[in-house]
Amino acid sequence: AADRDLVPDYPGITGSETFADWDPPFPIDLKRVRTQDEDYWKRYRTTPKGFIPLEVGQKLWGSRFGKLTSLRLWPKSGRLVETQVAFERSLREEIDPQYAAFSILPVRAQGLAASRGATDFGEYFLYFSFFLVISALLLAALFFKLGVEQRLPEIGLLQAVGFPAGRIRTLFLAEGMIVAVMGSLIGLLGALAYGRLLMFGLRTWWVEAVGTTMLTLHVSPLSMALGAAGGVFASLICIVWTLRQVGRSSTRSLLTGAATAQANPVEHKESETRRQRFFTSFRIATSLSVGAILMLTATSLHLIGQTAGFFGGALLLLAASLCFQSAWLRREGGTAIRGKGWWSVSRLGFRNATSRPGRSVLCIALIASAAFIIVAVDSFRHRGETLAPDRKSGSGGFPLLAQSLLPLVHDPNSHEGREELNLATDEAGSPLSSVTFARFRVRPGDDASCLNLYQPGNPKIIAPTPDFISENRFAFQNSLASTGEEKQNPWLLLNREFPDGAVPVIADANSMTYVLHLKLGDDFVLQQGDRPVHLRLVAALADSVFQSELVMAEKNFLRVFPEQEGYRFFLIDTQSPEQSPAIAAALEDRLADFGFDVQPTGERLANFHRVENTYLSTFQMLGALGLLLGTLGMAAVLLRNVLERRRELALLRAVGYNSSHFTLMVVAENALLLFCGLITGTVTALLAIAPVFFSQHAQLPSLSLGLLLLAVLTSGLTASILATWAALRSPLLPALRTE
Question: 43, 245, 511, 690 - which has most CB atoms within 10 Å?
């Protein structure tokens, strides 16, 4: 039994010549070494001095890493070398490499899967572009209709000389096809320019959020072809719809330039049609409002996804608002305008909006769509708010966060641990004397936050100590809590046991929804060696510093990942937050051997928010494009309305109205449409985000809304003045003769 090889080699001990040369990683009192101990070491080295039963040793020194340190074999035949060779051969044949943490990974497949990105922002661009596309289609339909109405005498002449309606429709369709194809080609060039502008912004203005300048524009010929074909198809539908309305008019009315269904329309018939359209618009608006309320209610109760509920409810609300305003503009029973002065003239301008209710609703829709995108997106922007020392904030009340390259096995909150880690101090008022640590075990993995552009397939996992769970810090957006105790402290859900063996974990709501694409109750399957580990999401934190990790209970962590030692993630609490910089510098200095890196929790949250704000800025560019489209469309509609009413303006001028009155009327009409569009877009956006607003960090936009209002008003007034100038510039006497 006197065999020094019974003890396995241990660096720093077994190779030492004397006890004084020992360098163990555990505390030892070398003063207790006697002369006979030195003599024994020189002669026998690691030969044991005593033997105890195996069961007793396993009870005293067994750990989660195992209860055996070595195996000793005795050959029966006495042929040691032959037995060793045979044993090694049979051992290699029987052992499974996966039990030694050896695994084969499909690196290329995983890389391709991760390169698809954590979030498909093309989907969100499509959602936001939907409002823009609808506005563009409405504007295209109006322009085609205005173009056809300008050529009504031409259509009437073709009918008078014998051209059939089908031939005329074919001529206009061919003409519209040429215009649509040219417009689609120009649109493709605009799409390329817009995409390059976004890529340039991500490489320069927003590079801190993206983290790389290696971004290039990827152009898919299929998507370009589909977009161009969609534009042409939509334009043709607008042309067919316009020609269908014109086809109901008589040849005589077309020759006179009036597209009416009858040569001599009856007044009460027009009134009846207007009344029918009023009730139709009102019924449609009521139905859409009920549908929007039901969808938003289902979203707030988490019966449907927030993305589908947000955009679906917003679309229904916007459509309902436009239908209500259409019914309002088509109502009957308006009283006569009496009096004099600017208010009476302004009321006359307001009344002009009801002469062409379809065009007025279109102008409102264009402005409302742009306002909706800008206001809704800006509501979710983080505005650099400072973190209060609140335990329910995104930092949990911890001003500092730290990570170490090497694990800390000693508790920095105990006196003994501070002594071992060189954190003990006798100085009165030392910043380190009031520091407390929340410790987390760490299993390294992929970043699960928005800072990672790739799809995380192996997320980082951390496990807090039980005392952190009992403190009940941080705010939760939602959880699977069923008992009163769990609802009071959702962290207790980490201790829940599932019959199928799933391990409960907690994630940040943003990471869970937009990066992992999971919801509460879903499982994330993690491959641990040869067996899959099902991580079940039981709660979602609200905008926290844990956006890069999944949080697991320590007891489950030790069972699933027994190879991970010590603690490598820390949240640091101080009694004086203003001393945080000094505390961070002292900790990094004294724990430099462990690779200790400290950063403010506010800075970590700001990094997350910077990325979110970047994506929101790209979405808001769609709103700016929609605002430009709405302004141009509104200017065109307003100019067309003024030109069509030149006879009225000529008559008003003949009875005493001057240019200032005309300008005031046009400005009043335009201001009414602008106001209705802004109110519609803003109110529907705020109602649509209400379910998310009360559960997340959404904030009411103030500065952006003011700038939006100023930009729209400025452009609208400019368009009004230009339209009035264009109308008054033309001779009014010929128009007066035709009145």
Answer: 511
- Do 362 and 640 meet the contact criterion of CB atoms below 8 Å apart? no
Buried/exposed 384-410: b ≥16 CB within 10 Å, e otherwise: eeebeeeeebbbbbbbbbbbbeeebee
- 549-552 and 460-464: which strand pairing? parallel
Provide the 10 A C-beta neighbour count for residue 582. 14
Q: What is the reported pLDDT for 265?
A: 44
Q: What is the pLDDT of residues 525-554, one digit of tens each?
A: 887 766 788 999 999 998 889 999 999 999
Residue 147: what pLDDT? 77
Report the alpha-carbon distance of residue 75 to residue 402 in Å, rounded. Answer: 53
Which secondary structure element, helix H or strand E, spans residue 313, and what is its range? helix 306-329
C-beta separation of 459 from 551 below 8 A:
no
CA end-to-end span of the chain: 125
Q: And the tokens for 737?
A: 């003769």
Give the span between the Cα atoms of 476 and 478, in whole angstroms. Answer: 6
How far is the C-alpha of 277 from the C-alpha of 670, rounded, in Å? Answer: 23
Tell me which of 125 and 560 has the higher pLDDT.
Answer: 560
Contacts of 677 (CB under 8 A, 6+ apart): 363, 364, 365, 366, 367, 368, 371, 630, 712
Q: Which residue has the higher pLDDT, 668 or 128?
A: 668
Q: Is 262's pLDDT higher than 50?
A: no
523-528 and 531-541: which strand pairing?
antiparallel
Q: What is the C-alpha to C-alpha distance for residues 268 and 272, in angstroms, rounded to an integer?
A: 6
H or E element, residue 191: helix 165-203
Cβ atoms of 665 and 352 within 8 Å: the answer is yes
* 687 and 296 Cβ atoms separated by less than 8 Å: yes
C-beta separation of 569 from 418 below 8 A? no
The angle subtended at Cα 309 by Cα 307 and Cα 313, nearest 5°, is 125
pLDDT class of 394 with cuts at 50, 70, 90: confident
Q: Is 624 exposed, middle or buried (0-12, 13-18, 19+ CB in 10 A)?
A: middle
More confident residue, 354 or 548: 548
Rounded Cα gap, residues 716 and 666, in angstroms: 10
pLDDT grade for 267, boundaries at 50, 70 and 90: very low
- Interacting residues of 723 by C-beta distance below 8 A, sequence separation 6+: 635, 638, 639, 641, 642, 666
How many beta carbons lie within 10 A of that of residue 271, not counting itself? 11
Asked whether the predicted pLDDT for residue 260 surpasses 70, the reply is no
Q: Using CA atoms, how far apart are residues 691 and 306, in angstroms rounded to an integer?
A: 9
- Model pLDDT for residues 328-346, shown as the tens digit of each residue: 887 776 678 888 888 888 8
